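Project outcomes to date are best conveyed with an example. Our students and postdoctoral researchers have been running inverse folding experiments weekly, and each run begins with a structure described purely in tokens. The record below, which covers 990 residues, was selected by the lab manager from last quarter's runs and is presented without edits.
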């Protein structure tokens, strides 16, 4: 029974690979190890070095799984694995010539391979598993595909995913072709390595070099092969010596068949940070020092001419700064950049003996270089245009129709790690994978298919997003909709942690990314960099809408509790992998949030003299200490110190990572009972007659609100209290208790709600109440009562008002309803969706503040700007809502802060209420403005349109596409009652 269950689990894990480990053989089965009988791996010594490397990796993987050694030779056995590249393997070429091996779909293709089972392919071989590649990398990918089939994760070494032990290894193979890849060049950029990768290599993994050297790069290149990648941009900060400083590096790259490129500020494979000495070589200025610069280009081109490389054309300033030009006007910059590229291409031809058009080259219009390109700069058409995101995950520009015809094509340079303004995010992987999918699928749609590079910092802890990025680049056909990401993550989790745990792990990570999308952990101090600022005031409200600070604390506590529960059920051989891939990021994000959220509560409660001020301060300190403890474990104890120095909990020592400063309590010496209500900054003061802070917000029968009351201690000691509702339909979550310094519970949060089956109905009238005083609804619509909170020497009377009309129109109404002067809408919950003539609205799951957004697709659809054409031809969303008031309303629309997909257009939608003329709102921001900074820190942009609601009752909000690609997250119709909050209030949906 166990064996059958295990077989089912593995089939699920490898479903996407169309293979499985099985026990009963059929014609599609191939025996690698069974009953101590071991096959061999046969390769041709003439084949590329990477084929031998991949064959040995596979042999090692088989040994790790079965404990049986397997030989890599040029001989064949009666049962063997034969691997080779067309034209470089005698045996493969013989099988092709004998028509025993069909390579018609492989030959001449880029990185394409097949895995086939052949009976009696050559004399002395009864059965062979034949891996044939169109080129050297394809053959290596094919060999490592077998590693996946026997259950070895690509992260076996980098994330300590220890393979399950098996006595037998029998794989079932479907006759299929793998490739050609969706994107030609696919890889990673090792960047901002100062606090992790470089220190780990120099002090731990490669101390003999004292740097990131060939030993480290060999491990990086093995990972890339396992992930079917082919390109690296090496580490390039000044703490690391340049890649070509160590001669062995380029040979190791070639041995592993990895193509070497460089970033936007490293032209012609040169690391300007370390290789350019201004004192001896002059200024890094092409306008007055071009001859010296060209010598550097010539030297590097000559050195790399015999290796696969991608040359970055043009130039920028040193250290990721703008290019220095004598004349700072744009026309002068454009002309100089064009001259730079002309000279660079001449050097390429001189040093390689090839035409420039035959060599891979890229031009990266990044920051000020994009401005030059947008102002008419001419770039030879065989050079690939590599577009970039804005450093925060939003691609700034894509190829237009003419640019898509370029022979050089286009590519994308994308970030999941960044150092710079408005704030770094160098510690955890907090980029939402569905956002990355959405942006990369958009780029793919616009023909950016020549090169994809992911800036992944130190690799760890970016493992999942790296694999997703590279899997999309390998085969984009599996990712036509957002659910493809969830399917991918669930298969990834099943492979790493077992099929049984995969759904829980996937749901955990989706919630982790949802919370990080609302605000990345590294942004929780509300500070900025360049220049570095101290912590700012949080935008999270502690008094309205259930207390956003406490809500976020509870959400992260639930996340951490779930992670602990899953960890208890992870197999022992995968515990370390779970810690690295899931637990540490979740723990780190949760506790960095706790540190700041409890600090904000510490500051807030101090203003009211609560003794709990010290409790919240202690919780903030404990969160900081937890991060210290877990980071120390990661570095010093995990895998016996294998990863020592890889994980820093405070990159660049920014204020967000610092030990929190807490405020001491200013409460008096005498113990007193205090009360604070939702929606009020100040505490209840029963010494003031007619205090306005002693009434809870109105309870709405159609939204079933709950509101909090904080019962707290002022001064040292203990106080018993009890709550006495004045009506049986008032429910309080706790009717009595004690607040005490001794017990460590100096305050309690109570929740007040209404038993709607018992509350009397308000008087009905023909018209709804007028005005915007939502605290004091006219008596005919409300029921009034109170709750008394009583201690030994104090009584607080808290007013309760219930809005409980019985409108016949709402009996069977399906839609949204006004609550305290606003209507809150989650956009995925539309009442109707109408397709346009060219586009339609589509829900993206796993993105946005609520977990879903709605996007106008396809992205290539033309913009519709004429108001009549919008109404007639644009895709439409409709939301039915009901208001109890009427008058002026502001429709606030929150969108994901993407950039325009069409040059010269915007990121727009149009809105109207009922039959009013549509109002166009545009979410586009230009450059690196303050508005852009706010948007990327919040992953949201909010724009508004003024509308008139001419009567109380039923209405319809209409939302049309104007520009394709616009992604809407939430909508708030504000009739004057919304109080400022970070996120929109809870959805007011019937």
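After processing, the design step wrote out the following sequence:
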């Amino acid at each position: 029974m166990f064996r059958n269950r295990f077989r089912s689990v593995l089939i699920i894990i490898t479903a996407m690979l169309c293979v499985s480990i099985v026990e009963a053989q059929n014609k599609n089965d191939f025996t690698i190890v069974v009953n101590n009988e071991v096959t061999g791996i046969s390769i041709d010594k003439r084949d590329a070095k990477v084929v031998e490397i991949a064959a040995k990796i596979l042999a090692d993987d088989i040994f790790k799984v079965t404990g049986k050694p397997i030989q890599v030779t040029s001989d064949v056995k009666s049962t063997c694995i034969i691997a080779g590249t067309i034209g470089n393997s005698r045996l493969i070429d013989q099988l092709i010539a004998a028509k025993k091996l069909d390579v018609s779909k492989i030959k001449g293709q880029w990185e394409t391979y097949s895995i086939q089972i052949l009976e009696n392919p050559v004399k002395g071989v009864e059965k062979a598993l034949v891996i044939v590649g169109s080129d050297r990398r394809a053959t290596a990918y094919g060999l490592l595909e077998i590693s996946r089939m026997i259950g070895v994760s690509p992260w076996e070494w980098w994330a300590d995913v220890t393979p399950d032990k098996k006595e037998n290894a029998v794989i079932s193979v479907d006759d299929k072709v793998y490739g050609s890849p969706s994107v030609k060049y696919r890889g990673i950029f090792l960047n901002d390595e100062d606090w992790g990768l470089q220190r780990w290599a120099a002090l731990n993994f490669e101390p003999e070099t004292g740097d990131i050297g060939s030993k480290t790069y060999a491990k990086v290149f093995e990972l890339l092969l396992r992930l079917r990648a082919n390109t690296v941009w090496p580490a390039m900060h000044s703490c690391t010596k340049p890649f070509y400083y160590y001669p062995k590096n380029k040979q190791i790259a070639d041995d592993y068949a990895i193509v070497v490129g460089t970033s936007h500020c490293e032209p012609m494979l040169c690391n300007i940070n370390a290789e350019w000495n201004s004192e001896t070589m002059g200024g890094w200025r092409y306008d007055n020092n071009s001859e010296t610069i060209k010598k550097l280009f010539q030297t590097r081109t000559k050195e790399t001419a015999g290796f696969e490389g991608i040359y970055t054309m043009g130039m920028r300033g040193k250290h990721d700064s703008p290019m220095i030009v004598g004349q700072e006007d744009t026309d002068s910059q454009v002309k100089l950049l064009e001259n730079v590229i002309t000279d660079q291409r001449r050097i390429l031809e001189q040093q390689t003996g090839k035409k420039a058009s035959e060599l891979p080259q890229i031009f990266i219009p990044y920051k000020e270089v994009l401005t030059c390109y947008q102002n008419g700069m001419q770039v030879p058409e065989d050079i690939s245009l590599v577009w970039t995101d804005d450093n925060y995950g939003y691609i700034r520009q894509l190829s237009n129709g003419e640019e898509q015809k370029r022979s050089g094509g286009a590519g994308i340079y994308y970030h999941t790690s960044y150092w710079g303004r408005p704030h770094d995010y160098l510690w955890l992987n907090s980029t939402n994978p569905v956002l990355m999918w959405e942006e990369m699928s958009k780029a793919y749609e616009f023909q950016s298919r020549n090169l994809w590079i992911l800036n992944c910092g130190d690799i760890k802890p970016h493992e999942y997003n790296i694999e997703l990025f590279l899997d999309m680049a390998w085969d984009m056909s599996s990712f036509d909709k957002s659910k493809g990401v969830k399917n991918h993550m669930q298969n990834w989790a099943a492979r790493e942690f077992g099929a049984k745990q995969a759904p829980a792990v996937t749901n955990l990570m989706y919630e982790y990314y949802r919370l990080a999308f609302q605000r990345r952990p590294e942004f929780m101090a509300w500070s900025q960099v360049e220049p570095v600022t101290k912590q700012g005031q949080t935008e999270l409200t502690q008094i309205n809408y259930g207390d956003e600070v406490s809500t976020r604390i509870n959400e992260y506590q639930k996340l951490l509790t779930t992670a602990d529960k899953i960890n208890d059920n992870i197999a022992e051989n995968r515990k370390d992998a779970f810690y690295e891939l899931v637990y540490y990021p979740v723990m780190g994000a949760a506790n960095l949030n706790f540190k700041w959220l409890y600090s904000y509560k510490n500051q807030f409660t101090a203003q009211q003299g609560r003794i709990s001020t010290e409790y919240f301060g202690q919780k903030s300190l404990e969160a900081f200490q937890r991060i210290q403890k877990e980071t120390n474990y990661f570095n010093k104890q995990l895998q016996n110190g294998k990863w020592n120095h890889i994980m820093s909990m405070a990159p660049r020592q920014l204020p967000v990572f610092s030990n929190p400063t807490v405020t001491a309590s200013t409460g008096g010496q005498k113990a007193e009972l205090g009360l604070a209500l939702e929606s009020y900054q100040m505490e209840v003061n029963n010494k003031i007659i007619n205090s306005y802070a002693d009434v809870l917000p109105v309870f709405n029968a159609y939204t079933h609100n709950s509101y909090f009351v904080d019962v707290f201690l002022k001064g040292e000691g203990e106080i018993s209290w009890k709550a006495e509702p004045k009506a049986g339909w008032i429910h309080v979550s706790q009717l009595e208790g004690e607040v005490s310094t001794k017990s460590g519970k100096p305050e309690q949060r109570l929740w007040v709600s209404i038993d709607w089956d018992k509350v009397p109905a308000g008087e009905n009238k023909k018209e709804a109440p007028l005005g915007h005083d939502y605290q004091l609804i006219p008596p005919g619509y409300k029921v009034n009562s109170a709750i008394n909170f009583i201690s030994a020497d104090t009584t607080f009377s808290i007013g309760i008002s219930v809005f409980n009309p019985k409108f016949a129109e709402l009996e069977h109404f399906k839609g949204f309803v006004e609550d305290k002067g606003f209507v809150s809408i989650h956009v995925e919950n539309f009442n109707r969706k109408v397709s346009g003539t060219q586009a339609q609205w589509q829900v993206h799951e796993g993105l946005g503040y609520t977990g879903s957004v709605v996007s106008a697709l396809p992205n290539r659809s033309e913009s519709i700007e004429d108001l009549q054409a919008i109404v007639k031809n644009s895709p439409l969303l409709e939301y039915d809502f009901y208001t109890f008031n009427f008058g002026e309303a502001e429709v606030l629309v929150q969108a994901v802060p993407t950039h325009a997909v069409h040059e010269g257009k915007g990121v727009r939608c149009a809105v109207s209420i009922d039959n009013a003329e549509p109002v166009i709102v545009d979410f586009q921001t230009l450059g690196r403005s303050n508005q852009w900074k706010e948007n990327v820190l919040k992953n949201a942009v909010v724009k508004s349109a003024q509308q008139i609601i001419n009567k109380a009752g039923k209405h319809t909000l209409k939302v049309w596409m104007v520009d394709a690609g616009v992604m809407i997250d939430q909508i708030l119709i504000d009739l004057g009652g919304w109080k400022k909050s970070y996120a929109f209030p809870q959805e007011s949906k019937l």
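Confidence is low (pLDDT under 50) at residues 1-24, 764-780. The longest strand covers residues 782-790. The training component of this project remains on track.
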